[in-house]
Amino acid sequence: FMKSHVNALLRAAVGLRRTNLAKLVQRRWRVHFGNERIRKIDEAREMLEEVKVLAKEHGVAELRGVRQALEGASGKIQPLVDTLQALRKEHDHDTKKIGPKLPSDKVAALHRVVEEL
Fold first, then answer.
1. Are 30 and 107 in contact (CB under 8 A)?
2. Most buried in the list 24, 28, 29, 39, measured by CB within 10 Å?
3. What angle do CA 96, 79, 43 make, to 5 degrees?
4. Could you report the per-residue pLDDT of 98-113, keeping only the tens digit for each?
């Protein structure tokens, strides 16, 4: 009835659709519970720390341009990290209460800030 390559193509399409649907459900779940904003702040802080360590290892951390870039990124990330820590203390790590109180416009720009380094 159908050639084997057609069956293989259909199976691959179904698998891809299932994978994309799972990713969509995970993302909506994170957004619903506020985990996405918290995760983005934590990941941005970790990425900045990794970049700082790499810069020190390669001996370029004290160059003016690198130092200014690291300070600029830190100046944008650190206030959100401080806000997150204060909210965690205030709400006892309840992500449903913490997530909505984080500013979404500033959180959305975090990865761009670190990626520019």
1. no
2. 39
3. 60
4. 888 888 888 888 878 8
Q: Which among 20, 83, 92 has a CA at the least distance from the CA of 28?
A: 20
Q: What is the pLDDT of residues 7-43, one digit of tens each?
A: 899 999 999 999 999 999 988 887 777 788 888 899 9
pTM (predicted TM-score)? 0.69
Q: Phi first, then psi: what are they for 12, rounded to 5°?
A: -65, -40
Phi-psi region of 60 (alpha: psi -120 to 50; beta: other; left: phi over 0): alpha
Please tell me the distance from the alpha carbon of residue 3 to that of residue 109, in angstroms, as a whole number: 48
Q: Which amino acid is at 95?
A: T
Q: What are phi and psi of 94, to 5 degrees?
A: -85, 105
